[in-house]
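Chapter summary example.
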Amino acid sequence: MTTPEAPLSGRVAYVTGAARGQGRSHCVRLARAGADIVAIDACGPVAAHNGYEPSTPEELAETVRLVEGEGRKILAKEIDVRDLEGQQRLVADAQEQFGRLDIAVANAGVLNWGRLWEISAEQWQQVLDVNLTGVWNTMKAVVPAMIEAGNGGSIINVSSAAGIKAVPGCGHYCASKFGVVGLTNSLAIELGEYGIRVNSVHPYGTDTPMGNDLSMYGMFQEHPTYVYSFSPGALPTESLADPGLISDIVLWLASDASSLVTAAQIPADKGYLKI
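The structure predicted for these 275 residues follows.
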């Protein structure tokens, strides 16, 4: 039985991009709420043009330690979201170990910079493969298990403010994150009959390795007018948002408190999308 202190007690959550940043934060927050965790991360280079360091096996191991520190079980593997068969095998292992799957958080993503007609075909394809096809792979892996469990459930796809309000300098990223919205809304309709809700979250300016990528400033130096597309938002903004604030929204969407919410795009942006 769930309690206000542990609203996800007895449930199992699958989280991608779990080694650090938002992914780690989501794992720990869901575990604190009572869920056991299934976690994946590539733990290595995934896109040649990223301006920040890739995640590591040591970082995934730290996520495991933190989840276990919350008193929950965790099954963690080094799997790239582009590896559909790897994800399917892990879901099967999770079903065997935990007996169910209730929550999926498709969090893994990459961001790099360049004008659309100047980026390489490789740069375009890698971002689309991770950010959009990677989400589709995750959905294809987890949805049959969630339907089989028969408990309804919640899928949370992490898009971006740039998945609603396109910005210059990373059009390939915007395209991928807009795509996640379409995937989310279609899947919400298809899974409604099974009591499975599907929503997307749209963060902006988050304190993660991706959010601290200094290469974006090179783009602003070359094209100063681009900066006007990145307004600070309506609320006071002194720094990038702590990933835990995004995790609070993910927890709400994962829990029964959001039982009426599906096919929704939830902003986590301090009002940026309205400015």
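To summarize the output: The first strand starts at residue 12 and ends at 16.
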